[in-house]
Structures are given as C-alpha cells and as structure tokens.
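Inputs:
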Amino acid sequence: MPRPLSLHEDRLFPADPGVRAIARRLYGQVKDLPIISPHGHTDPAWFATNAPFSNAAELLLAPDHYLYRMLYSQGVAMDRLAVPSRKGASSADPREAWRLFASNQHLFRGTPSAIWLAHVFSVVFGFDVALEAQTADLYYDRINEQLATETFRPRALFDRFGIEALATTESPHESLDHHAAIRASGWGGNVITAYRPDPVVDCEHEAFAEALGRFGELTGQDVMSWQGYLEAHRIRRAAFAAAGATSTDHGHPTAATADLSPPDAERLFQTIVSGKATPAEAELFRAQMLTEMARMSLDDGLVMQIHPGSFRNHNAQVFARFGRDKGADIPQATDYVRALKPLLDRFGNETDLTVILFTLDETSYARELAPLAGHYPILKLGPAWWFHDSPEGMRRFREQTTETAGFYNTVGFNDDTRAFLSIPARHDVARRVDCAFLARLVSEHRMAEDEAGEVAVDLAYNLPRRAYKLDRKPARELAGAG
Amino acid sequence: MPRPLSLHEDRLFPADPGVRAIARRLYGQVKDLPIISPHGHTDPAWFATNAPFSNAAELLLAPDHYLYRMLYSQGVAMDRLAVPSRKGASSADPREAWRLFASNQHLFRGTPSAIWLAHVFSVVFGFDVALEAQTADLYYDRINEQLATETFRPRALFDRFGIEALATTESPHESLDHHAAIRASGWGGNVITAYRPDPVVDCEHEAFAEALGRFGELTGQDVMSWQGYLEAHRIRRAAFAAAGATSTDHGHPTAATADLSPPDAERLFQTIVSGKATPAEAELFRAQMLTEMARMSLDDGLVMQIHPGSFRNHNAQVFARFGRDKGADIPQATDYVRALKPLLDRFGNETDLTVILFTLDETSYARELAPLAGHYPILKLGPAWWFHDSPEGMRRFREQTTETAGFYNTVGFNDDTRAFLSIPARHDVARRVDCAFLARLVSEHRMAEDEAGEVAVDLAYNLPRRAYKLDRKPARELAGAG
Amino acid sequence: MPRPLSLHEDRLFPADPGVRAIARRLYGQVKDLPIISPHGHTDPAWFATNAPFSNAAELLLAPDHYLYRMLYSQGVAMDRLAVPSRKGASSADPREAWRLFASNQHLFRGTPSAIWLAHVFSVVFGFDVALEAQTADLYYDRINEQLATETFRPRALFDRFGIEALATTESPHESLDHHAAIRASGWGGNVITAYRPDPVVDCEHEAFAEALGRFGELTGQDVMSWQGYLEAHRIRRAAFAAAGATSTDHGHPTAATADLSPPDAERLFQTIVSGKATPAEAELFRAQMLTEMARMSLDDGLVMQIHPGSFRNHNAQVFARFGRDKGADIPQATDYVRALKPLLDRFGNETDLTVILFTLDETSYARELAPLAGHYPILKLGPAWWFHDSPEGMRRFREQTTETAGFYNTVGFNDDTRAFLSIPARHDVARRVDCAFLARLVSEHRMAEDEAGEVAVDLAYNLPRRAYKLDRKPARELAGAG
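Outputs:
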C-alpha cells in the first residue's frame, strides 16, 4: 500500500492548541487573497504561446535544481535525471528519470521541496497517494494525461491559481516579444517583466561580450562608450517599463556599491569593455552600476532589487558540463554596512526611491539589514530568499528582523521561482508561516489579534503591491496605515 | 472607538499552559525586586534639579531614536518629529509631532518599543486606550497634565520605580556637578556615574581636541604628554569613583586591544595628539587604551565594560544635519577571539579584574563570547544589547550563551537607556523573558524548578549587584552560590 | 536535605502534550539501539589493560575541560581541581578537588555538562540525591567503591553501555599497541582507531619535529623527502586500517584546502621541514595535505573528517603552565565556500569518497555547509560539534541544515569525548533532541509519523554506520532508502 497523501489544514501552524487556533483565524483572512508575484523566473513564452507542458519529468524535475541537486548530492548522475547539459537535452528516458526521482523521496524529508511537491501533487494534480517507487508510473501517466488537457495549459493554470500579477525577469539584451504577444493576445493575465542587467554589467559573466553586442543593436547606441552605454540602459529600461516592468534586479556576488566621479567611472568602463579588467575592476564596475541604476530609478521610478551573496557556479566540473543554475551556487558571508555606504551616502535619504535588499547570509538580518532598513528611507527588506524560502527560514527572518525593522519595512513574499506549478504552494507556505509567527506574538500578548490580522493581510497582499508599485488595479487599503 | 490598552499579566510568557504556569511562578519571585540599573544614559541633571519634564513629545519622542528612526525609515522627516538638529530645537509644534507619531503606531507592531510604550502609557500614565490618531490629543494633554504634578518629577518617579541603584554615564572632560548636587541634596536616591573616556581616547571623535583640552584643565595635567595623559585618567577615575562610579565603559568600533611596549605606546600617543594619526593608528590607540584601562582597573577596582561593533553615524547627511545618536548607528561583524587576545595575554587570568563584554553581532554569542567567558576569569557577558534588547534578542542570548558560559558568567540586565520612564518596562521585559527561558528548561526537565527560581533571582538582582560591585547596601545572598 | 536526583523520562522533549507524545513514540524506537561511536577520544589503554579507574576526581573531573574550565572562569585555580600541569600530576587532594567541584554545581545549570553528569550519576552510579556540597563525600566514596569493582572496569562498562563500535583517535607517529592488545585479548568489544595526522602535518604544532622523527622510524621512510613523507602516510594509513580504522580526522585552524602542482607541493614541503616556514606557508601546507589525504582516501577508502575552526591554546599562560586541551580553545569564524574549493574542484564529484565536515561556526550551517552538502557528492555534514554538542546546539543544527541538506546528507551523532562514562548520556541526548525535532515536524504536518520514525532510526543507527563504513557486522536496512 502506498502512503496516503493529504494536506492537513493546519500544516505549518504551531502545535499548541491555543496558538494554532489563532493562526487558523489569521490564515482565514489571507488564504484566498490574490497572489502577488513581483519577482520570479517563469518563462513568458508559456503565457505567450499557451502551449501545453510536455511531461512530468521535463516540467517538474529537469528544470528544478532544488530537486536534482539533492539526488546529485547522494551520487545520482544528473544525466539520469533528465537534466539537460550544454550539449542539449538529456538522453535519459523521462519516465526512468521520474522513477529515480520517485524512489528517492526520502531525501526531501524536512525540506520545503517536500511541502511544495505535496501541494502540487495534491491540489494541482489531485493525487491522494504519495509519490514513491510503487506509484511512480501512476504519477507519471496521470500527470501527463492532465498536462495534455486544456485546464492545464499555462493561462488556465495562471487564472486558476488566482494570480493578480506575475513578474518574469529578462535582461536588457533580450527581446520582450513574448510579453508583447501576451498583451496582444487579449488574455487578461497580468504578466510583466523586470529589468535584470547583469549580463551587460558583469564582465565576468560568460555571455558578457555577446550580450553587450546585442544590447547595442537593440538600442542603436554605441555601447562601447560610457554615455552610449548609459543611454542604452535608459532606452531598455523604458522599453521594459512599457512592458509592465516596475522593478530592476541585480544579482551580484557582493552588495558592494561605489560612487565614482564621472571621469573615474568612464575610465573604469573603458577598462571593462577592453576585456582586460581585473576581478577587482569587474567588482568595482558592478558596484558603480548599482549607483547608476539608482540614479536612473530616481528618474523612471523602477524599484531596485539587490540579490547579492551567491558564489555562482561553484562546482567547476558541473559548470563545464551543464552550465549555470544547476544547484551549485553557494551562499557566502555578505557585508552590507560598508558595502552599501557609497550608494546610501548619495541617495539613502531620498523618499522617491525604493531599494529592496535580499540576503543569503542570515547573520545580516538582525545585525545589518534590519538596522539599515529601520533607518534609511530608501531601504526595504525582501523576504527570506532561496535557501531560506522555507518554514524555518521564514520564521528566522521574522524573528530576526521584526524587532528592529518592524513589518512595514518588509515587502511581503516573493516566490522567485521557475517552477510555475509551485507558485500557489509557495505563497501558501509564506502565508501560513507569517500567520504562525503572528499567532505566537498574539498568544504572548505582544500584539492584539485584530492588529495581527491587519498585518497578515498587509504581508500577503498590500505590502508587495505597494512596494513594487503594482497598483494599476485598485488596491485594498493598507490596513494598518494611518 | 479606540483600541483598548491593557497589559496582560502573562505577556511574554510561552503559550503552552504548563510552561506558562512555571513562568508565572518564577516571575512571581522576581517581579517586585528592586531595579539595579548599572549602565545607562539618563541625565543626572534630572535628579539634581528635579525640574518637571516638559511635554510628551519632548520627553518621549524627540530624544528616543528607536522611535523617530522608524518613522524616518518610512519617509517622515525628522524635523516634523521635534527632533533637534545641530542648529538647535526643532521648529515643529510638539503637539503636531505627537499626532504624527500617534498615527504611525502600526510601524512599531512586533517591536520592543511597542511593549515599552504600552507599559509606560498604562502603568506610568494610567491610560486604558491605545495611542492612535484619534487618541493623540487625549494622550498629549493628559501626559502633560501629569508631568506638571509633583508625583511625576524625576525623583518621585525614581522612588516610585523601585530603583535601588542607577548609573549614568559621563566622560572625563565633563563635570560631575549634577552628581555632587544629588548627593548634597539629601535625597536618598542612589544615582552614580560611570567613566566613559571615549571622547579623550578616540581621536576620530569630532570633539576629541576640545575634550582633551578640558581634560587637561580639570586635572591640571599636561595631557599632551603620555605620562600626564595617563595620570589625568587616574585623577578623573578617582573623582568618578568618589561620585559613586564602580565601572568604566568603552564604546569602540571594534573590540581590538593592544599591548604595546611603553616606548611604542608613548610614540603612538604623540602621533595621536599631533592630529596626524591615520585611521589605523587611531584604532591602535583605542586598542592600547583598553589595556591601559584594564591596568588602572587592577589598581582602583573599576569594572570595565566594552561595547564594541557599532558603525556610528552611518548616514552622512543625517550626521551633518542632526549630529550623533540619531538612529543611524549600524552594527557590524565583530571579532573577539583575536581582538581581545593582547589584553587577555596580559591580564586574562587575573581574579581581581572584571571585564564585561557586549556585542551587536549575535553570531559571536555561541562562537566566541560564551567560550571566552566560560574560560577566562576576568570575562563576563553583558546582556543582549541595543538592537537585541528585545524579547527575541534576549531569548537568543540565553539560548546561545547558556550552554557554554552558564548563567553565572552573565551579569543580569542593563537597560542602557536615555528613556527614563521606560526603565521599569525594560527590566520587566528582561525578567519575563528570563523566566520564560527558565520555564522552558524546567518543563523539559533540564533544571529543577527550585534551581530555576534561584537563577531568576540571581539574574534579576544578585548578579548585577555583584558584577558591578553595587553592594554598599546589604545584598541578598546569591541564591545559587555554594 | 540534599536535592533529589532523578532523570525524568520525558527530559528534553517539548512541553506541549501533543508534541511530547509524538516525541515519546519516536524515542521508543531508538532508545535501545546499539551505540555507534565513530569518532572520539577515549584511551585505548583502558580497553587494552582493563585496569580499574582510579577515583572520582581523576576519572570525572581532572580530564574533563568542560567542567574545570567553568570553575576556572569563576576564579577557581586549576591546581585545586586536580588538573595536571606540564610538571605532572596536581598536588591537590582529589577529595578536596571533588568537594570544590561539588559545591559549585550551580555553575552548570543550563549546560549539557549538567545533563551528562546527572545521567552518569543516576544511571551509571545509581545515585538518587544530587551532587552538592553536603553530598560531596557520599559521592566521592561511593563512586570510588564502585570503580574498584569488576562491573566498573572499562570492558564491563563498554558492554553494559551497548556500544557496537567505538573509534579512538591516534596519530601516525603513535603506536597502535593498545589496539593490537585489545584484538589479541579475545574480548569481543569493537574498538577501532582513526588516523589523525595533525602532529606530522602541522609544523606549528609544538611536537611536530619529534612526531616527524618518530613517523620516519615507524615507517622506515625518509620523511624529510616529499615522496618518502607521502609514502609514510600510506604505510601508516594501511596499518591504521588494519587496526580497524575506517576514517581519518583533520583538526586544522581553518578549512583551507589547496591543490598545488607536484613541484610546488614538493618545494613547499621542503620549506616546512626546514623549520623556516612562515605562518602562511604552514597554513598552505595543511591545506595541501587535505587534498593529499583525499587522494589517498580514494585509494584506501578511509572516510575523511575535517574539524576546523578552533583557535587552539588561546590562553598563553594556561598553555605555558598546563599544556593543550585545557578548555582554552576558542572557536573562530570559519569560511568553507572558498576554503574547500581547491579540494572540491579536484575531487568534489567523486562518488567513492566521503568527506565529513564539522564546524564550530554555526553561521555556516545554513549559509555554506547545507548548500555544499546538498550538492557535492563527496560531502556530508558531521553533527553539532563540541560547544554545540548540546540540546540547543543540536536543535539549531537540525533547524538550520535540514531544509537544504535534508537528513540524509548528515551522519548521525558523534560523541567525540574523552569522558567514557558519559557516552551513553551523550547519545541519549542526541536521540532525544532529534526525536523532539522530528516530533515538531510531525505535529506541524511537515512529515508523517511513520517517516519520522524511519528518520529517527536512521539518525541513531543506520547513517553513522553507513557513513563511517562500520558495516562489518550485518547492518539493519536503512529504513528510508529506496
């Protein structure tokens, strides 16, 4: 007999009956709110073409580095898991890959992947037995059957998931054709883009030269000159804004910022495009570009997101064979207090600029991020990110930031995912964990329950809408605001 | 209808009924103990002159950077909050400032400020409705009325609060006239000073030259010579001790210590007073002075406190307009294991010296501070400090230090505050959080309840009294000591 | 009346009745499993000679730096606690030392020492009153009486404790005679060794030159030549494997690894043995040797353990008088993400190599170690170590590693102790804390109870057996493996 699969209605709530009852009531106020997904990595082609998804392995396993890295860590070759390499698609039979995945579910015990998968399997696909070796084929076939139906096409799922707004992420050298197609299609789904300039900013990125070339073509600017390069950014930012973008995103190895004099910045830029930059110069240029982006944001209103601190492509062999984003990005200790000072000295006291900070280094929550966000007008804290987008991670985020930054210097949840089908699961986890945290505060008489209810609604809906300026449709009033 | 305001008798206790019952019993043993406040920043002039406080905004809002920085972080100008600038008092109408504060109370949800304010409003001023936009004027008027009465004068509040000892903090170049006046007044309140030499030690402090000049005048020493400078410290330390001081306090950017040879120390000093010191030399001199202060403490018995790790005045614009202590001090990662070694190599094994360590970097609790304090005879751990003087912060302090350092290498609570009216609230929070932690240990059968009761009393009363040598009046016996 | 001593059957379980009931059921599945102790520091002479232990102070106090460092931190001289110095045995009367220890038990409240001692006193020695001043002599006499009996000899205790395998730790220059004697004795206890080459790798170790000389003698190799030195390692590793070793162990100040070219490695080695190495060269050589050891492990199958991050012998005076391992080792911040890269670039993707990582820097759990172990096939996470081998420490380990690395990239518990009598206590604590953590996951509907039961058994028994290759006797099936 396979194990049963069911989602308990009290999952992720504290065990104490009194606290759990509070959490339940708070969650009741937020569980059906629309999903605001202001930052993520879904593929706009899905919504542009609305083509059916292929099969369980290629949809759920092969693109999800949370899943295959765990099996890889236990000695399972990535080829066997249908993960594509630089040479192209894997030659693995997707059904065999799925069986291998199914028979290793115990590896995910205690991980957020287990929670998300259970939600997807139960709510999206309607399974009532767990995925394991003996149910692998049942799953594989039934998922594939459903994917072939109209109700599992991308737009139908988007509507079914109750998504009010969904941002994808594109780079300046990339076309926005899919976004144009979405808008031209007459479908009502609010899918927008976000401006991620890393490939044309980071000269250590393997695609820098090519991206820069395409950047120049798309904008008609001489992107080998500093002024032309900056103008090209302005042009693409405007195009992205026209495609709905309300934000930019910057994924740097560190949070370093710089505020060079214009001549120094120009000289540095010439070194960068010469192809002869040292690692220190590459870092300084990334740092300077954060300040340049902030300057442009003051003009065009795009909200900045900074996602620093990942040592990308740590595994040289995996990078060589499989390329980037293969579960081999490792967080590193990240300083903010000195790193951000140049940008803050220049723009920290502006009231028309928003910079949302993320971290992979939880030690900075209470020590640096909450004190910075609890003081500087431009700073807000993004939610627990990546490895910390999990029940324990979210709980630590609230425990370690709230006392100094409060709730209102945070911006609600980001799912930040490529795994489209998991979006409702991820938002549900965030809402449950926030309600659990609030329920504890209520139970310890640190907040009244009506206040906690307002905060829960603000975290789930109002704050992300406001912080990311996603208020084209009428917003609910921010409950707690005076 | 405004929200009701009431302090629940079980606030800050764990929700589980069994654990809560234990916490209640433990708290019953400490809630009425006298307050020992061995480190803080109240103004001795209040107790010397016993003049009435002015008004709600100037007493409770304008001096409290915990409060106005939160509003500033949300874009509210500090001028509008009655915060004085370098040019003098704010031109804001204090009632308007108060209204602005009142209408933004939601920003403080989940913060210790909310807990302290609720205590002050409820217990000190007797309100039974919460502060919000519609009660702003009620609060403003009723607080001001009460402040004008005899029972709200500083000395009356001091007595009402049950304070057994209260230390202020002064610097060597400052007069101790207010302390002399307090003693001469015949009032029985035990208000003492503490020796904070930073302004005459830190040549990067903006008032260094002026403070050094005044230091020389007050002591009659040639403070431009190394020997005269050291002698001036000895003279002022003696004067402070005569004004009741039992401790010194050192607020350096790092915990660096040094143990230079006398000729090297003298040469460094000459560089410092020449005004040409590099940042590294300034840092080395601060480091050397910690060791010099330890040497003097071995002679005169003053307990040393080291408060390192704050990047002061991080916001250049705010510092330029408003000066220091405006909510713009940001913690930074702080090393102790290498930083303290020179001082420890020299004096770490003394049994007649006490050095109390604080941190803003919670990562050092379990990794460095508890192992150091759990070994070196001179070291004790100060309580959770500043950003961490909060329910979650205090809990983390106990969870992360107790298993290695025990309770008896800690020194009870410091309120460390300028906000005189919040002192009972802060001590009450500390007592409740410690009792909650102890109750968990008891409930998990890690400690007997009678032992936990002894520890609770020691943390609330005996340990701070003993660690800070505040035992002029007969002390209760340290319950747990053999 | 002395306080009673009893071990509550629910100790260390969460207070909530529902969660506690789950924890109890899970613990019921693991409490009687055999003890696997794959890493520790017991003395093989005990099991070789099977001589009776001497007395309470010399067995329980004088060798246990967890205990005497706590008293030392409160000003009690180590001489008075029977701690031997470099000059030899302490002149303290062991009974007086014991009394001093007994009268300071309050210092251990809230520490794991208190839990371990209670277990030893209650379960091993049968006391029902607590150790305190008034029971010091009762304890001293009764312990000594029991130690003189046959049932308290080392082998009898080993059998009574239900130990299935116990690893000691020896260095390459040390004889394995005791292990040979154990095997020759016919006693069935499975006592094995582990290969700890630090004294012949770390040229900053005070015994390096002497150890290197002995290393050459034992192997007949020219250990002053790089090839001879490497060959000597191979010879001793083989001898250790023949004495049952399944692992090596490396206790370096940092986790640095290096992968030098053979000529560079040889040149570096010559500098090391010349006695003129700088600290940076000493560090680089330790780093290179981790990679050399990994290379040898690929050949001989020994599992590598890396225990980095201790600043050894921090107290210069204590080191001068008493030598190493005297409670004066202080953890320091430890990087893994850059430090391990050279070794990982070379061997990280091997499926026949296991490297078990430990840390004293808990900040690396979620930030670096779990992401590394959750990706690289060779990496596994050792349990919470040393200062963190405690209820709170173990809980943080699970909370901070599980969501990214899962349970199956961890290796169960190590007691890592010199205190033989505390081994059952330590394993019992680990089992209870793991069951408490799992019970919380079950109660929050994050894992089914049957899955949690499998994980509990795997953590207590199957994972350490498998990770350390202690499967000479038939292993129970790894419950959760597919």
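Remarks. Residues 279-300 of chain A form the longest helix (22 residues). The two ends of chain A are 57 Å apart (CA to CA).
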